[in-house]
Write a sequence for this structure.
């Protein structure tokens, strides 16, 4: 089965412009806002949102990068060791409205881990969540405030977001996973 492209570079550009307008409209002011991208692809998305807001409002937005890997709840169960990257938020988060930015919202576990990491840095006035894709299948009661595209998907499909800054191309695709072959028990 071939990958199914669900967003092109132009779709992503238009979607981020819309989300930037929604952030401005909902918050009524950009004065206390900080955009914080969740590593890895949330960071360039946050930077693009900030550029859109600057273009629309003439205000330069503070943008940060958040590494939440030590706050994940699945490393022990997967037997993985976290690869820690840097957290770089240019101003304090206390009493600020943080717009947490990620590429895909799935189970909600990454968003929960990111919120825990943010709260360890201070006490934000509010945390909002902006995602490019919401694919459903929530395991925690978390929802995005700003959604680029709702894309219900099967659990056995993979949502692949590629961004120029990381992957050299802008597109979102659904990648079907091949069915698992059952072992033959002939002659048993």
């Amino acid at each position: 089965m071939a990958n199914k492209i669900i967003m092109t570079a132009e779709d992503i550009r238009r979607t981020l412009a819309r989300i930037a307008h929604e952030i401005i409209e909902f918050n009524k002011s950009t004065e206390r806002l900080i955009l914080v991208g969740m590593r890895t692809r949330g960071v360039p998305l946050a930077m693009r949102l900030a550029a859109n807001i600057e273009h629309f409002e003439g205000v330069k937005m503070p943008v940060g990068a958040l590494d939440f890997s030590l706050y994940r709840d699945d490393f022990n169960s997967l037997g993985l060791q976290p690869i820690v990257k840097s957290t770089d938020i240019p101003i304090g988060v206390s009493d600020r409205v943080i717009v947490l930015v990620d590429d895909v919202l799935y189970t909600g576990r990454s968003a929960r881990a990111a919120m825990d990491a943010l709260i360890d840095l201070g006490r934000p006035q509010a945390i909002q969540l902006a995602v490019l894709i919401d694919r459903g299948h929530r395991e925690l009661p978390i929802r995005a405030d700003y959604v680029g595209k709702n894309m219900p998907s099967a659990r056995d499909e993979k949502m692949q977001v590629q961004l120029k800054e990381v992957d050299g191309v802008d597109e979102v695709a659904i990648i079907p996973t091949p069915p698992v072959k059952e072992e033959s028990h002939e002659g048993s």
